Amino acid sequence: MFAPIYFDHNATTPADPAVIDAMLPYLSTQFGNASSRHEYGRAARRAIDEARNRVATALGAHATEVVFTSGGSEANNLLIKGATACLKPGLLAVSAIEHPCVIKPAEQLARRGWTLARVAVDAAGRIDVDDYAAAMAHKPRLVSLMLANNETGVIQDIEALAGRARAAGAWFHTDAVQAVGKLPVDFRRLNAAGVHALTLSGHKIGGPKGAAALIVDKRVELEPLIAGGGHERGLRSGTENVAAIVGLGVACQLAAERQAALAVDLGQLRGKLERGLLGLGATLFGQAADRLSNTVYFAFAGIDGETLVGQLDRAGYAVASGAACSSANPEPSHVLRAMGVAPDLARSAVRVSLGRGNTGGQIEGFLGTLQLTVGRLQQLTAMAV
Amino acid sequence: MLKLPIYLDYSATTPVDPRVAEKMIPYLVEKFGNPASRSHSFGWEAEAAIEEAREEVARLVNADPKEIVWTSGATESNNLALKGAAQFYAGKGRHLITMKTEHKAVLDTCRELERQGFTVTYLDVMENGLLDIDVFKAALRPDTILVSAMFVNNEIGVIQPIAEIGEICRSKGVLLHVDAAQATGKVVIDLEALKVDLMSFSAHKTYGPKGIGALYVRRKPRVRLTAQMHGGGHERGFRSGTLPTHQIVGMGEAFRLARLEMGAENERIRMLRDRLLKGVSDIDEVYVNGDLERRVPHNLNASFAYVEGESLLMAIKDLAVSSGSACTSASLEPSYVLRALGREDELAHSSIRFTLGRFTTAEEIDYAIRLLHDKIGRLRELSPLWEMVQEGVDLSTVQWAAH
Q: Residue B385: its pLDDT value, please?
């Protein structure tokens, strides 16, 4: 039995050994509640302060701008619901390709007096400039656009988009969950361009599940989602998850240190994979756009994506047929639909997302397996017809 | 050799049991899949581990695993239960009832609901910290939709009459939420028998990790909630967000151990607590806060009169204890729980909460007793008030001059 090869790093990543080492004391002897005043509590508080500094340094933010949450979904909910709760209802603009944890809260608000603008994307998955300009002309109060898409890896020109939102007088939030560790992300620079808040998540960057952060400009007034005790300067109550927060801090630091070299390495692997895919006759999504160097989203027309990933899993390759969170959903990807991809082709979509530890040999093996699998499935399809 | 400071603050948080940590670690390393990944074995393995943990949590409280919703902790569970139920059933009525001695996670959420247009009655408790059932019955109104009562109080450890409260709520068609963060592993919880609709749990108070909790949501009769966190539709839409597998596995194992070991463990802890109580009761002017009988065996909360609270904490810093609940101890306000018992501020200020647990030893308790005797004696020697009391002055009759 050989270990399957993991090609699904946009869904989650293994925790880095250095992250685990940093966390372990907080799952054994250093177990205090950070709100306790005795030595056990103070040690926990110091660990959280240090993690906050690490996150802030890695992201070019100030420690007081970092709010720890239980995950990226919570951070996005906190920003969207929390910021709008402090504003008069008006226009809220999000892109059509946002993660459900941005779209769903936005839809909630649309039922409570807010107007929701879903900004369109072009065929390559980039924000449609004209549609965005039209939304900005209506003076939104809050804009949320993801920095890089989880399915396609397409990167938005966030600084330019934020600048236009600022000119329109809006708060601007970016979900950077998929971007951190894969691109240089500097909150101070983004902030200067008009970004007021940014979401990042630990488990996408070699940290543990259960810890994430919202980095937020202090001018943005927020109503907390979770009340009770006033932790995180009143923005997020609940006993701090010390071990996971410590892990998040180390993961952010490592991600920042490794980002440039990793992007080059993964870019080479991706180039090899894409050349192979094109040779096999695959359609690549978002190819015309600037994309994360680890993500390939492709389809073989006529071959069901679910079926293909099932076969690949049996052959020892873990890939995704869409975003993990909505994988249970038989609907074709909302991201591909927004890009104008026909439903049939969208149902064929498969995502490979590379990460640390993946090798050129794995890519070659994968392409070989894929060729055989696709050939077999095409034969079956031909027989069925 | 004793390790100092001695940890006697198990109600603030507990260490992760080494057996729990051992089960968690593989889910950070090789079994790291996203449980929502449906297309490969990494995801399925994580999902299977989560469902096994859900069964363990359900088993401790005699519930159906389908009634368990994962959250990031009891604070989030309390928020989801109260806001989720109040918002969903707002059409039926807009009145809620709770107690003044609830945890901040309930009280602050109630304050928020008041800002949303709900009315909340905050009930007084009796001098022993328990809810007076007649007072409770009198507070029910035709528009009452939800009652929130904690199972075990975090500061004084008293056990509220949840079974009785549940019967009354059910007969009136009112939902009952119970914050059981301090109860799991300490009192037997049988949700088949109890008429409880919603119950909040925490892992880190029961030797599991921080950052994970659960909300029990009854299916028969079915209880509905307005979700508070939206996204990928995890947890059947009750609570979106990637599930932290290692933490969930930890909570499952912690609750499994609690189920297997709580009987014997609680007897051992009761003996240690009684030893502590006996050891400090020959100090003059010591008052136990809260009912001693209807109380978890882990808790002793006592006021040491004529000793200033902050000085006492400094003097006994070899003991990691709390003076008020951990979440509020940064403030110098006397504990609102002790004030609700009718304790005057002076006594509330000089109170210490000792909470014992799985790793507390008799040697540690004996050390604590000696230290308390020694330090309280010395602090009182320095106290002019204590001197006056010894001379027979009734302090309540003294006219204090303003500075």
A: 82
| Residue B325: predicted pLDDT | 44
Q: What's residue B261's pLDDT?
A: 98
Q: Which of A223, A254, A285 is the last residue of a domain?
A: A254
Query: Are residues A151 and A287 both part of a single domain?
Result: no
Q: What angle do CA B212, B237, B47 make, to 5 degrees?
A: 55
Distance from CA of A279 to the nearest CA of B (A): 25
A22 and A77 in a single domain? The answer is yes
Residue A274 and residue A182 share a domain: no
pLDDT at A322 > cutoff 80: no
The chain A residue lying nearest B310, using CA atoms, is: A37
Q: Cβ contact (<8 Å) for A241 and B43?
A: no
Determine the structural domain holding residue A296 and report its residue range.
Answer: 5-12+259-384
Boundary-marking domain end, from A254, A282, A298: A254
Q: Which one of B327, B371, B385, B389 is the catalytic residue?
A: B327
- Report the CATH number at residue A374: 3.90.1150.10
pLDDT class of A326 with cuts at 50, 70, 90: very low
B86-93 CB contacts, 8 Å cutoff, 24+ apart: B86/B113, B86/B116, B86/B118, B86/B145, B86/B146, B87/B116, B87/B226, B88/B224, B88/B225, B88/B226, B89/B145, B89/B146, B89/B175, B89/B224, B90/B118, B90/B145, B92/B143, B92/B145, B93/B141, B93/B142, B93/B143, B93/B144, B93/B145
Dihedral angle of Cα A358, A363, A365, A367, to the nearest 10 degrees: 150
The whole model's pTM is what? 0.95
Report the residue of chain A nearest B326, measured CA to CA: A36
pLDDT (tens digit per residue) in B95-153: 999 999 999 999 999 999 999 999 999 999 999 999 999 999 999 999 999 999 999 99
Distance from the A113 Cα atom to the nearest Cα atom in chain B, whole angstroms: 15
Is the ipTM reported for this complex over the cut 0.85? Answer: yes
Question: Are A340 and A196 members of one domain?
Answer: no
The total of structural domains in chain A comes to 2
The alpha-carbon gap from A306 to the nearest alpha carbon of chain B, in Å, equals 7
Active site residue B327: yes
Q: Which candidate from A23, A40, A225 shows the least CB-CB separation from B320? A: A40
DSSP calls for A182-245:
TB---HHHHHHHT--EEEEEGGGTTS-TT-EEEEE-TTS----SS-SS-TGGGTS-S---HHHH
Closest CA to A294 of A348, A248, A363, A209: A363
Q: For residue A52, what are the contacts with CB-CB under 8 A and spacing of at least 6?
A: A63, A66, A68, A245, A249
Residues A140 and A217 in one domain: yes
Closest Cβ–Cβ partner in A15, A35, A241 for B327: A35
| pLDDT band at A331; cut points 50, 70, 90 | confident
Q: Report CA torsion sign: B184, B188, B191, B197.
A: negative
Q: Judge whether residue A103 has pLDDT over 60.
A: yes
CATH number, position A133: 3.40.640.10
pLDDT at B328 over 60: no
A–B CB contacts, 8 A cutoff, strictly below: 271
> Which residues of chain B lie closer than 8 angstroms to A209, CB-CB?
34, 242-247
Helix (H) or strand (E) run with residue B77 in it = helix B74-88
Average pLDDT over residues B157-181: 98
Interface residue of A7, A10, A12 to substitute, partner B, most B CBs within 10 Å: A12
Same domain? A271 vs A232: no
- Rounded CA-CA distance B71/B243 in Å is 9
Are B38 and A327 a contacting pair at CB < 8 A?
Answer: yes
For residues A100 and A230, state if they share a domain: yes
Q: Give dist(CA A215, CA B133) in Å, integer.
A: 47
Residues A213 and A264 in one domain: no
